[in-house]
Amino acid sequence: MLLCPFPCHYKATHKVMTKKEQLFYKSNPYNIKQGFVQGQLEVNQNIPIVNVGTSQIIGTGDLVAIDGENLLSLNINKNRIEISATLYDQQNRLAAKIMNNEWVSGNPLPWDLESGFQWLKIRRKKRDIELEIDARAYPINMLANIWKNQHNLRFSPKQIIWESAKTHVRFAHKCFVAMKIEAETTNSTFTLSPDPRIGTFAVITDLNRKKRIRRGLKIWQELSKKKGLK
Questions:
Q1: 176 CB-contact burial (10 Å; exposed 0-12 / middle 13-18 / buried 19+)
Q2: How does DSSP assign 9-60, residue by residue?
Q3: In terms of DSSP bridges, do strands 151-155 and 179-184 run parallel, antiparallel, or are they unpaired?
Q4: Is the pTM of this model over 0.90?
Q5: Which of 48, 150, 171, 207 has a Cα-to-Cα distance from 15 of 20 to 30 A?
Q6: DSSP label of 8
Q7: Are 100 and 77 within 8 A, CB to CB?
Q8: End-to-end CA, the chain
Q9: What stretch of H or E contains 24?
Q10: How far, in Å, CA of 96 to CA of 107, rounded?
Q11: What DSSP character marks residue 5?
């Protein structure tokens, strides 16, 4: 089958694209029609769970909001996860915006940007990672360095960390289900809130990662089923 050299042929060769998809894209050159240069992040996972350091977040919808602005969300579309994120730098300038797995704004030139079809890494300098998404593994791995009005939320390799002049919060080895992180920089407050569609959330503490994930997924299935969520 003849496919464009990049990205279609490369995706097909590395078994990221199914045969059915190959046939469809051969007759419908989506990237050309949509004007995508680098294509989109391919996420084949359909279970709404991400690893953030040693913890996990399970659920859909808005996951992080600071000063009322949603900065990180996770949704299921056509049986696949879609990630949206807004990143500001320490001077509160918009650095990057990713919408439904696609980089849609922000100047990539000041950044050290590396990407593949199922992974993305954005950093200012060596070891200074602003956002890293790796969808090659299950669950998806995510690291993030989120700034807003001189306040900082980090998904580091070991912890979830919120730091401000008045508040310091750290989490490790937790599984958050149907939960939203909300913060206000005017009074340096940090809150764990339930998904408003569900009205309740769960935090699971277990050093055994597999057990923690199993318990979290079971709770999510029960809660989301009651509300008809995906």
A1: buried
A2: IHHHHTT-S-HHHHHHHHHS-HHHHHT-SS--------S-EEEETTEEEE-S
A3: unpaired
A4: no
A5: 48
A6: I
A7: yes
A8: 35
A9: helix 19-27
A10: 7
A11: I
